[in-house]
Design goal:
Blueprint (H helix, E strand, L loop, with lengths): L5 H13 L8 H15 L4 E7 L5 E6 L2 H13 L3 H8 L3 E5 L3 H6 L1 H9 L4 E9 L2 E10 L7 H23 L3 H29 L3 H14 L4 H10 L11
Antiparallel strand pairs: 1-2, 1-5, 3-4, 4-5
């Protein structure tokens, strides 16, 4: 089968991000899909997504790789970083080199840690619908040149369609149900992280490879990612063959 063109991949990304009115909607898997599409379609190295709860708390919902997930978690702990600023203002943050005086002054720990992990510039786009902002998307580059404006506009479009999809899905349910789904999303993220770590340790592979295998298994078997992760943790499912003795 010939490789899809960028235009075809872009169209497929928007269709997938808009298709949220399904009974087994999994917001964490959905946001991992958003991060993956950003890395595929934009001139970036990695992407991360933060999501807000109705109470205003921020959780590191997804990332395209393990180092980015750790950086997003640290950013929340430090209460600093472009993604948090982007969420709080509801405005995109244009690409900025991490050595820039503004980045060093505004996000000293974040900028230092991001550079240690191999990133050289960062941009951010809010997940928003009109005046409602429900999260933010971080876009990282290994290149010190900032993300081009047209690339940031495309990143914002992907973030917008994801926000519309999430809010559309939420609107189907009562507020109490929505709160329960968000708590379930947080619980899902925790069990997925635990399953990644367990698989990595069991098979002596990286956490990123473990997560890739987890997702492949779930997609191949048409299972929810969270359900597969729970089965990995209780020992009833292993997504990889047992290591040779």
């Amino acid at each position: 089968m010939p490789e899809q063109s960028r235009q075809e991949r872009l169209a497929a990304a928007f269709v997938e991000l808009a298709d949220t009115l399904v009974g087994d909607f999994d917001v964490i898997a959905f946001l991992h899909t958003l991060a993956d599409h950003c890395v595929d379609l934009l001139d970036i190295t990695a992407a991360g997504v933060m999501l807000a709860t109705p109470q205003g708390d921020i959780l590191d919902a997804s990332a395209s790789d393990e180092r980015t997930r750790r950086l997003e978690t640290d950013s929340i702990d430090w209460d600093e970083g472009p993604c948090l600023d982007c969420f709080r203002t509801g405005k995109p943050i244009p690409g900025i080199p991490l050595v820039h005086p503004h980045a060093r002054a505004q996000w000293p720990r974040f900028a230092h840690k991001a550079q240690e992990l191999g990133f050289a510039s960062v941009a951010a786009a809010p997940l928003r619908l009109r005046e409602q902002t429900i999260g933010a998307l971080n876009l990282f580059r290994a290149d010190p040149d900032p993300l081009a404006p047209d690339q940031l506009h495309l990143g914002q479009a992907l973030a917008d369609i994801a926000a519309i999809g999430i809010l559309q899905q939420r609107a189907v349910h009562e507020q109490a149900v929505v709160a329960g789904q968000l708590q379930a999303a947080l619980d899902s993220r925790i069990v997925i992280e635990q399953a990644k770590g367990a698989l990595a340790q069991l098979h002596s592979i990286s956490v990123d490879d473990a997560f890739d295998q987890l997702r492949r298994y779930a997609r191949h078997h048409r299972r929810r990612l969270t359900d597969v992760a729970r089965e990995v943790m209780d020992g009833s499912t292993d997504v990889l063959p047992a290591p040779e003795q």
